[in-house]
Specification:
The protein starts with 6 loop residues before the first helix and ends in a 13-residue tail after the last helix. By secondary structure, the protein is mainly alpha-helical. The protein has a single domain, classed as Helix Hairpins. The protein is about 75% helix and about 0% strand. The radius of gyration is 17 Å and the shape is elongated.
Length: about 100
């Protein structure tokens, strides 16, 4: 007797990973940790897309997941460039200390 995960198992895992990422975005003050938490959230969405695509035997979810990965890669590159630039000027990557940059 073999056990196979169902759609509900994948969606519960996706919701758990998304929640961990959301908590990381809400309570952390380090910009790098915030961006890593956003990546967790994007990966949980990818897991949902792939799970639904597997459940419905279609390729649409795979295509959307590919586009989300492309956007996540671009976001990571831009975020890293911003963090490096801010660190060179402020000597900190704390989100609280970056609030004065808007003025």
């Amino acid at each position: 007797m073999s056990w196979e995960p169902t759609l509900a198992h994948f969606l519960i895992l996706s919701a758990a990973v998304f929640s961990i990422g959301l908590v990381g975005v809400m309570i952390r003050r380090n910009a790098i940790i915030v961006f890593m938490s956003i990546e967790l959230m994007l990966n949980s969405v990818n897991l949902s897309f792939i799970a639904f695509a597997r459940y419905r035997f279609e390729m649409d979810g795979h295509v959307f997941a590919f586009f989300v990965m492309a956007v996540a890669a671009a976001e990571a590159a831009v975020a890293l460039a911003i963090v490096i630039h801010v660190f060179r000027h402020k000597r900190s990557v704390s989100v609280d200390e970056l609030a004065d940059l808007k003025y």
